[in-house]
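Hello,

Our lab assistant flagged a job as stuck in the queue for most of the afternoon. It eventually completed. Since we weren't sure the result was trustworthy after the delay, we are filing this so someone can double-check. Below is the sequence as submitted and the structure that was eventually returned. Let us know if re-running is recommended.
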Amino acid sequence: MTANVPQTATPNSVSAGPASDVKTFVTAVLLTFAVGELTLLGYALLGVFGGIIGLVGGIFGVVWWRSVHDKQVFPRDLPAKSLIVLTVATALITLLAFLLVA
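-- returned structure --
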């Protein structure tokens, strides 16, 4: 007869702490917003075809982001520099979209 010894609970290995969780949430929001803004820019410039091109460009951007961060879109320890660059890039895309649409 074999005895099954219960395993002890391991701590949460996904989260690196509350600050990491907030950075991951902000990254998810900014990536989603940036892809939407690129789609809007493409649509504003070229119509439906431009919207499709903008969407493909946004997907390419997310794939590039993943390749930069060791094959993870949301790495466990996201560098602050990456978050700052993403914030600035999203702000520039948003500003350009406002200037073109308005």
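-- support follow-up --
The delay was a queue issue, not a problem with the job. The result is valid. The mean pLDDT is 88. The chain has three helices and no strands.
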